[in-house]
């Protein structure tokens, strides 16, 4: 009887130890999804992790949610094969394309997913699109991962598109080329990647201005402005400081409740009424364009708030920190 009892106790102890090891492995160890999917960013519905991997710059997770694939970077949703992604891409691309005097040469910084490139290819007069991304694996996903290629319609493999694996700022600083439209579609700086401040700085915007053709425009992604409007105000103030004319615009997603902000910056004076769409798109109709160009009350910078981001400070990172700590 004693022998049977000790065998039972031993088996139970082994089970508890193995369960503990497994719990540690999935919670904090190599099996944990936390480095890949933040708890606050987990899908509310059933999901399946298709793949996780590390690149030279980030931790990537491909997650299947229903019929969609969501791409995570360092725990945050970066983009996905979903309808609100189509809306986001239409707004950040077609507003500057409509505002530019010409639109033959396009530079997209942060173009690894290929969705913005897909939208720029709607214009027959486009001669060349340069898509720059710092992460080779991310660019490869946009070129070869079948479900993403289907979503971006093979944009990164199009004969008018050249892809470059390089830091966006380094590429511009070393380039002798000029462009009609430059789109900067990168995430906000975070503690994990504070160096992103350098792609929003006054010094870099001066560099971008020098690489614009006459009548050329910039389109800058400004994150979720309903959560931190000062982030957009600071980017606009920085663009104005280097002598560009600006128009803030936004896109409120009825599906997610998120209001995405952008700044249009031009080498020439420009009014919202001057902007007329040049192509037909499913979401961004002329009526919707007027809504996009009309800021809601909470985004209007009546008190001239915001600070200038330079290479010597961390204005945007500080705004993000304050929002995360609220």
TrEMBL record:
<keyword id="KW-1133">Transmembrane helix</keyword>
<feature type="binding site">
    <location>
        <position position="133"/>
    </location>
    <ligand>
        <name>S-methyl-5'-thioadenosine</name>
    </ligand>
</feature>
<feature type="transmembrane region" description="Helical">
    <location>
        <begin position="6"/>
        <end position="25"/>
    </location>
</feature>
<feature type="binding site">
    <location>
        <begin position="167"/>
        <end position="168"/>
    </location>
    <ligand>
        <name>S-methyl-5'-thioadenosine</name>
    </ligand>
</feature>
<dbReference type="InterPro" id="IPR030373">
    <property type="entry name" value="PABS_CS"/>
</dbReference>
<keyword id="KW-0808">Transferase</keyword>
<dbReference type="InterPro" id="IPR001045">
    <property type="entry name" value="Spermi_synthase"/>
</dbReference>
<keyword id="KW-0620">Polyamine biosynthesis</keyword>
<dbReference type="GO" id="GO:0010487">
    <property type="term" value="F:thermospermine synthase activity"/>
</dbReference>
<dbReference type="GO" id="GO:0008295">
    <property type="term" value="P:spermidine biosynthetic process"/>
</dbReference>
<dbReference type="GO" id="GO:0004766">
    <property type="term" value="F:spermidine synthase activity"/>
</dbReference>
<dbReference type="GO" id="GO:0005886">
    <property type="term" value="C:plasma membrane"/>
</dbReference>
<dbReference type="InterPro" id="IPR030374">
    <property type="entry name" value="PABS"/>
</dbReference>
<protein>
    <recommendedName>
        <fullName>Polyamine aminopropyltransferase</fullName>
        <ecNumber>2.5.1.16</ecNumber>
    </recommendedName>
</protein>
<feature type="binding site">
    <location>
        <position position="58"/>
    </location>
    <ligand>
        <name>S-methyl-5'-thioadenosine</name>
    </ligand>
</feature>
<feature type="domain" description="PABS">
    <location>
        <begin position="23"/>
        <end position="267"/>
    </location>
</feature>
<keyword id="KW-0963">Cytoplasm</keyword>
<keyword id="KW-0745">Spermidine biosynthesis</keyword>
<comment type="pathway">
    <text>Amine and polyamine biosynthesis; spermidine biosynthesis; spermidine from putrescine: step 1/1.</text>
</comment>
<comment type="function">
    <text>Catalyzes the irreversible transfer of a propylamine group from the amino donor S-adenosylmethioninamine (decarboxy-AdoMet) to putrescine (1,4-diaminobutane) to yield spermidine.</text>
</comment>
<comment type="subunit">
    <text>Homodimer or homotetramer.</text>
</comment>
<keyword id="KW-0812">Transmembrane</keyword>
<feature type="active site" description="Proton acceptor">
    <location>
        <position position="185"/>
    </location>
</feature>
<comment type="similarity">
    <text>Belongs to the spermidine/spermine synthase family.</text>
</comment>
<dbReference type="InterPro" id="IPR029063">
    <property type="entry name" value="SAM-dependent_MTases_sf"/>
</dbReference>
<keyword id="KW-0472">Membrane</keyword>
<dbReference type="Pfam" id="PF01564">
    <property type="entry name" value="Spermine_synth"/>
</dbReference>
């Amino acid at each position: 009887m004693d022998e049977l009892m000790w065998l039972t106790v031993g088996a139970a102890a082994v089970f508890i130890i193995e369960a503990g090891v497994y719990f540690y492995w999935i919670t904090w160890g190599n099996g944990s999804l936390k480095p890949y999917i933040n708890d606050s960013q987990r899908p509310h519905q059933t999901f399946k992790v298709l793949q996780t991997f590390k690149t030279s710059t980030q931790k990537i997770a491909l997650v299947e949610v229903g019929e969609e694939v969501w791409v995570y970077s360092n725990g945050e949703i970066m983009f996905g094969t979903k309808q609100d992604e189509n809306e986001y891409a239409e707004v950040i691309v077609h507003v500057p394309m409509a505002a530019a005097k010409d639109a033959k040469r396009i530079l997209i910084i942060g173009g690894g997913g290929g969705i913005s490139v897909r939208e720029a290819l709607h214009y027959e007069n486009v001669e060349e699109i340069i898509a720059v991304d710092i992460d080779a694996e991310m660019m490869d996903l946009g070129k070869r991962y079948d479900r993403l290629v289907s979503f971006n319609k093979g944009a990164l493999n199009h004969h008018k598109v050249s892809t470059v694996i390089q830091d966006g700022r380094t590429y511009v600083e070393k380039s002798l080329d000029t462009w009609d439209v430059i789109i900067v579609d990168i995430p906000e700086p975070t503690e994990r990647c504070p160096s992103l401040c350098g792609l929003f700085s006054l010094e870099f915007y001066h560099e971008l201005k020098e690489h614009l053709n006459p009548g050329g425009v910039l389109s800058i992604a400004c994150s979720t402005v309903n959560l931190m409007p000062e982030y957009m105000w600071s980017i606009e103030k920085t663009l104005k400081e280097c002598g560009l004319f600006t128009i803030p615009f936004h896109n409120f997603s009825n599906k997610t409740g998120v209001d995405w902000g952008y700044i249009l910056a031009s080498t020439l004076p420009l009014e919202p009424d001057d902007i007329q769409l040049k192509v037909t798109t499913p979401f961004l109709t002329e009526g919707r364009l007027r809504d996009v160009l009309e800021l809601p009350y909470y985004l209007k910078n009546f008190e001239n708030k915001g600070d200038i981001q330079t290479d010597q400070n961390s204005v945007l990172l500080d705004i993000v920190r304050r929002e995360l700590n609220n």
